[in-house]
Amino acid sequence: MVRLQKYLAECGVASRRASETLISEGRVRVNGAVATLGQSVDPATDRVAVDGRELGTDDKVYIVLNKPRNVVTTAKDTHGRRTVLDCVQSSDARLFPVGRLDFDVEGVLLLTNDGELAYRLIHPKFRIEKEYLAWVRGRMEAAAAAQLEQGVELEDGLTAPAKVGVLETRSGNSLVRLIIHEGRKREVKRMCDAVGHPVQTLRRITFAGIECNGLRPGEWRNLTEREITGLMVLVGLK
User: Fold this and answer.
1) Which phi and psi (to 5°) does residue 48 adopt?
2) Domain 62-124+209-234, second-level architecture
């Protein structure tokens, strides 16, 4: 179960606060009944409608974008910055991003109008793997890599074990490959900071096994049927 306003936000309807306003105004229904603020829903079984339009009834669209740096992972930006939806304007579907990438991070980002799949892909219990390449400051030795693999203590608790490999050292900096399955805010950056190796550049190269090879920053493609099926299997929808 998930709070209704959180589910609406994850489905790209509006921000969580704006979703609370929609609920308070009586514009949201769950299984035909007017929703109440604070109500929880099960995305797998409950039917949620906003202004009479049921979520998840549109033809499903699944896209992978090679997100450029200096683009925000939101539907709208109050500061007028370019958003990931600006990158996919040629798609007719009403899409929303699956999770987030920081403003200065590039790489694999999924977008869809499938709220149930998106919800599951970012839910911690499904332990979806995300793979990153990071150039970090300094020569990362085996001890620091081992710390990351075992989990490091951050202000919001101990991180889950990561898979870590130092691929290259150049000009006193290190290229590090990290695979994590948590989705904490700025997690990779904070992990590397915690072991004394601040991130200089960061790129996500896979999400749930999906890659964006061959796509330049800002380019996107539709997922293949095989990729879509693979995602469904990962989160127990098929």
Assistant:
1) -115, 130
2) 2-Layer Sandwich (3.30)
65 exposed, middle or buried (CB, 10 Å; 0-12, 13-18, 19+)? buried
Strands 153-154 and 106-112, by their bridges, are unpaired
Same fold: 62-124+209-234 with 129-207: yes
Would you state the CATH architecture of domain 129-207?
2-Layer Sandwich (3.30)
Tokens representing residue 203 in the block = 């790129």
| Paired strand residues for 33 | 30
Closest among 236, 228, 4, 238 to 120, alpha carbons compared: 236
DSSP secondary structure letter of residue 35: P
159 DSSP 8-state letter: P
Q: What is the CA radius of gyration of the chain?
A: 19
pLDDT 10s digits, 130-164: 999 999 999 999 999 999 999 999 999 999 999 99
13 vs 26, 47, 56, 95, 137, CA distance in Å? 15, 15, 11, 10, 40
Residues 80/63, Cβ–Cβ less than 8 Å: no
Residue 207 CA neighbour count, 13 Å, CB half: 26
- Active-site annotation, residues: 102
What's the CATH number for 2-54? 3.10.290.10
pTM beyond 0.85: the answer is no
Nearest to 47 by CA among 15, 74, 11: 11
